[in-house]
Specification:
Elements lengths: L10 E2 L10 H17 L13 H11 L5 H21 L4 E5 L6 H8 L5 E6 L2 H14 L4 E2 L2 E2 L18 E5 L9 H14 L4 E7 L4 H8 L5 H17 L8 E8 L4 E8 L3 E5 L2 E5 L4 E8 L3 H11 L2 E7 L5 E7 L8
Parallel strand pairs: 1-4, 2-3, 2-6, 3-5, 6-7
Antiparallel strand pairs: 7-14, 8-9, 9-12, 10-11, 13-14
Helix pairs in contact: 2-8, 3-4, 6-9
Amino acid sequence: MNDNFGYTGASIRPGTMRDTNSADTSHSDFMRDLQHGLALQRKSISPKYFYDEAGSQLFDQICELPEYYPTRTEVSILHKHADEIALKMGAHAEILEFGAGSMQKVRVLLDAMDKPARYIPIDISAEHLLGAAKQMAKDYPNLEVEPLEADYTQDLVLPPDMPPDGQRIGFFPGSTLGNFEPSDALHFMRMCAKTLQGGALILGADLVKNPEVLHAAYSDKQGITAQFNLNLMVRANRELGANFQIDQFAHSAFYNAPYQRIEMHLMSTCQQTVRIGDASFAFVQGETLHTENSDKCTIDGLSQLALRAGFTPGKAWTDPENKFCLLWLDAPKTRNPT
């Protein structure tokens, strides 16, 4: 831990847990999106609904699994290149982390940075966000931590005061961009380019590799990923009064080679009908609810996407086996094209 951030005070700034996702609004959105997704010919739901408090804790467990290489590989890249990345960030930089989760990876950067101005973690899971932010403020007593409860895929209302002497740097680790549909990924990247105007984005991405490695990572022997996937239905039952029979659905994850992506599904093991609110939805045996895509990338493909969004691709850092990469993307100094 870096104890020489160069100024005093900071902690969690009061009043910064903005009510952009109140409980009522969150439940209403979840109800609407789940009903819409189950009415589709190919049933699907956004993976953002994985992340209630229980889901966030299960994901933290996944990151510690021996089969799940992305987290430890990305952290190893961060440790190896933190000083070089911190030099590019410059003194008095502000870090804006999209989908901050437990806020572990960003610590590697904070420890290497020269007098960071502020840390703004953004996450949709309010309880998990606040708990992690409090711990961050305790561990880094001289760092201003300003948590923002929000869906970071939507337009964000950020603190108006930019760092006076440094850049605003976005941090988006974990290859979460791979969960987006291509059009949504481009929209998100354009939003980042606007938000980080004149700064940069540090983007983490999982690279194309042997499918056997991917299958093991998403279908672990302990069944934690299965619990994480099924928790979406547990959450729907608890928050929406749905009647999913959890023991009648099975976790399914596989690599779809033509699309270069892992797909996660919840497969119905029998013919059944599920009620959500005033609507009912029939599942035939073997039918699935598609819960997540995790696209695997190439550095060239990521660079092309970044260029379309208005960024200028910079250096890419990888591990020795080229499993994962961190990509530096310079944001435009003026508003990016739409």
